[in-house]
Specification:
Layout lengths: L2 E3 L9 H7 L8 E3 L16 H13 L8 H8 L6 E3 L5 E5 L9 H15 L7 E6 L3 H10 L5 E8 L5 H8 L5 E7 L2 H12 L2 H6 L2 E3 L5 H22 L4 E5 L4 H11 L7 E5 L4 H6 L25 H7 L2 H7 E5 L2 H15 L5 H16 L5 E5 L7 H8 L7 H7 L6 E4 L2 H10 L3
Helix pairs in contact: 2-3, 2-9, 3-4, 4-5, 4-9, 5-6, 9-10, 14-15
The protein binds pyridoxal-5'-phosphate (PLP).
Length: 432
């Protein structure tokens, strides 16, 4: 399969090249030249997640050197559960994506990317540095996925004081080949520093760099598999295609749901649940698409003012079609708090602030029409955000063993000015 750039000014490439590059040379995002269709007769509704991923991704890998490794990559990357739990209302479910090593759905994409990239590396290649700017969850998932992987080094930049204490601990706890820097600036500063470094050809010649942000195909593709698994199972049980409500920031997770639907999976409507950063809700309500500076909210991993994957969605469909097919709603911090509190008190259901946006939107949709089959997506474990959640619910949140394991390690992060040259120095230091 061939991949094109959304900006139309870069040569078509194969899958391995698209995964290795991240961004296309014209600054666009890689998209498939043609959408493959899934052969629904060739999979059982009760197949495992790695089996479903390999079945779904087979046509995407066709003709690529990684095709021979696809089964092994899926088994290695998707070695944890993504359970579908019934919610206390009729025909509604919660798809839990936080049972991986760092307790957020980012583990799926990061582990798949690492499984692909380590197979793309030749033993004679110089060490590759993976640069990540993170607002909290991505850095930890990428750190965990590449930790102690020979030939790779990870450099994580996060905005000092703007991630939760447990997120900060996770980012700094790996050590070895994973280096965490707390930047005296915002997430936007971190992102700018990464972009500048990636575009610095002199620097790249001295120490090769790559990135692992949410525009990477290697992260996007495997995220289709848990939607496929949930959709196949629910369709078999209920005879209708479920709608999904997805907590949304950079639109990577929701776009994977849209791509799975485009491949022919039984998926109904896709609803985007955003926090107070309302670029997508405003656009879907008819305004021009207008990226803007982000505002800080309780759902910090969704504090995005310019959703990077919007470029892929708008390349696939025209604006009117997008407005007809998808809905997006903004959920403010007051509603996030109310939702967390009410679910814990009334249903003994404890969720993270991101998941609360989806459950709030689910409640609004149910009020309007209770008859549809719906799935809300749970993107992180609430124990990652205990500082927000525990005061609201008045009790402590048990820490899952995976997270506990990381929290017991010693954590260390170096301070770094929000300055492009400071990052350049850090990256060159280790090769001198
Ligand atoms: C990253 C993240 C999101 C947003 O996902 P996108 O793919 O950027 O839309 C939502 N919730 C949590 C917990 C996250 O870490």
């Amino acid at each position: 399969m061939r991949f094109l750039s959304t900006r139309g000014d870069a040569p078509a490439v194969g899958l391995s090249a698209a995964i290795a590059a991240g961004l296309a040379p014209d600054g666009g995002l890689y998209v498939p030249a043609a959408f493959p269709r899934a052969d629904l007769d060739a999979i059982a509704p009760d197949a495992t997640l790695p089996e479903i991923a390999a079945w779904l991704l087979r046509p995407w890998f066709a003709g690529d050197p990684l095709a021979a490794h696809l089964d092994a990559i899926c088994r290695e990357a998707l070695a944890f559960d993504t359970p579908l739990r019934p919610l206390p209302w009729d025909d509604t479910y919660l798809l839990e994506l936080f049972h991986g090593p760092t307790a957020a759905f980012k583990d799926v994409g990061a582990r798949f990317l690492a499984a692909c990239m380590r197979r793309l590396r030749a033993p004679s290649d110089p060490p590759l540095t993976i640069l990540v700017a993170t607002s909290g969850d991505t850095g930890a998932a990428v750190g965990a996925a590449f930790h102690r992987l020979p030939g790779f080094r990870v450099v994580i930049l996060y905005p000092d004081g703007r991630v939760s204490p447990r997120q900060a601990h996770q980012l700094g706890c790996f050590g070895d080949n994973v280096h965490a820097f707390r930047v005296a600036g915002s997430f936007d500063d971190c992102q700018r520093m990464v972009k500048t470094a990636l575009g610095d050809t002199d620097l790249q010649a001295r120490t090769p760099l790559s990135s692992a942000n949410s525009i990477s195909l290697g992260r996007l593709l495997p995220q289709m598999s848990y939607y496929a698994q949930a959709a196949l199972r629910l369709h078999a049980e209920h005879g209708v295609a479920p709608d999904f409500v997805v907590p949304t920031g950079n639109l990577g997770n929701a776009l994977a749901c849209v791509w799975a639907r485009t491949m022919g999976l039984p998926i109904g409507k896709v609803h985007l649940a955003c926090n107070a950063n309302a670029v997508l809700p405003d656009f879907l309500a008819g305004a021009d698409y207008a990226p803007r500076a982000s505002v800080a909210t309780l759902a910090n991993a969704m504090d995005v003012g310019a959703p990077s994957n919007a470029e892929r969605l708008r390349w696939m469909f025209d604006d009117d079609f997008i407005r007809a097919q998808f809905t997006a709603q903004s959920v403010d911090d007051v509603a996030i708090r109310d939702t967390v509190r009410a679910l814990a008190a009334e249903h003994d259901l404890v969720v993270c602030p991101h998941t609360a946006t989806a459950l709030h939107v689910l409640a609004r949709l149910r009020d309007a029409d209770p008859s549809r089959l719906r799935v809300a997506v749970a993107t992180a474990h609430p124990a990652k955000f205990e500082g927000v959640i525990e005061p609201l619910i008045g009790r402590s949140v048990p820490v899952p063993s995976t997270l506990d394991h990381l929290l017991r390690r010693v954590a260390h992060a170096e301070p770094l000015p929000a300055d492009d040259d400071a990052l350049r120095e850090v990256l060159l230091d280790s090769v001198r």
